[in-house]
């Protein structure tokens, strides 16, 4: 049972344009969501998070939107840069502390 | 200091070997985690320690044995592993295990079992 889903395995955008990465979840018990960026053979790096009491959180070029009724969140990167090319994981935390990751989306930003 | 340090970075071991993975953090975090990641898959939770006590074991085989000697250190003892256990092993920490904590990850140990 995949509780956190990222249905797009890959995304390719042009440098300077917007990247939109999507994530859906099934468990209404999740109340905190995070996005991580990961390079091969390295640990995930925290990017941005959002609590379920908010619908938007912004940090520089990164904005996360949460639609609780649709159980959907998205990460917007504006403007996209070649250094943003990596695998992006959406994750959700249960109150027990269990962090559940989606399958990841590989973002390629072309110069 | 927002680092989680894992050693070694790479490890090759035979199926009869005993080895240990080490993880250290000095952020004062009281929750520490072991995750396993296979290629092209998301990290999967193995163990959670909260205040040095094991709070979650995700039905991990007994050939993996975690240990939390103190609040800054987390070990994963490996014995009689199988080739399918080859993966990237990630350690993480957070302030606590409440539902609104972000986890900080180490760079991982790339393990190959021959």
Q: Quick one: biggest sheet of chain A? A: 6 strands, mixed
Gyration radius from CA atoms of chain B, angstroms: 13 Å
Classification by helices and strands of chain B: mainly beta
Helix content of chain A: under 10%
> What is the overall shape of chain A?
globular
Mean pLDDT of chain B: 93
The H-and-E topology of chain B, N to C, reads as EEEEEEEEEEE
- Sheet of most strands of chain B: 7 strands, mixed
Radius of gyration of chain A, rounded?
13 Å
Mean pLDDT of chain A: 93
Number of helix segments of chain B? 0
- Terminal CA distance of chain B: 36 Å
Low-confidence segments of chain B, given as residue ranges, are none
Helix content of chain B: under 10%
Name the biggest interface.
Answer: A-B, 25 and 31 residues
| Number of DSSP-assigned strands of chain B | 11
Structural class of chain A: mainly beta
Number of helical segments of chain A? 0
pLDDT < 50 runs, ≥5 residues of chain A: none
Report the order of strands and helices of chain A: EEEEEEEEEEE
Quaternary form: heterodimer
């Amino acid at each position: 049972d995949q509780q956190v889903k990222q249905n797009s395995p890959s995304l390719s955008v042009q440098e300077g344009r917007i990247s939109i990465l999507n994530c859906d979840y099934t468990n209404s018990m999740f109340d905190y969501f995070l996005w991580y960026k990961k390079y091969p053979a390295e640990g995930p790096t925290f990017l941005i998070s959002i609590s379920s009491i908010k619908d938007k959180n912004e940090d520089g070029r990164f904005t996360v939107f949460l639609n609780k009724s649709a159980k959907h969140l998205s990460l917007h990167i504006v403007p996209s840069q070649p250094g943003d090319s990596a695998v992006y994981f959406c994750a959700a935390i249960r109150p027990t502390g269990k962090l559940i990751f989606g399958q990841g989306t590989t973002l390629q930003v072309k110069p | 200091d927002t680092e989680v340090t894992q050693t070694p970075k790479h490890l090759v071991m035979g199926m009869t070997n005993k080895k240990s993975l080490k993880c250290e953090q000095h952020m004062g975090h009281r929750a520490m985690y072991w995750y396993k990641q296979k290629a092209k898959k998301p990290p999967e939770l193995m163990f959670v320690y909260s205040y040095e006590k094991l709070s979650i074991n995700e039905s991990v085989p007994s050939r993996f044995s975690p240990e939390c000697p103190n609040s800054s250190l987390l070990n994963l003892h490996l014995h009689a592993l199988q080739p399918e256990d080859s993966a990237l092993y990630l350690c993480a920490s957070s302030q606590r295990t409440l539902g609104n904590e972000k986890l900080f990850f180490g760079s991982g140990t790339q393990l190959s079992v021959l």
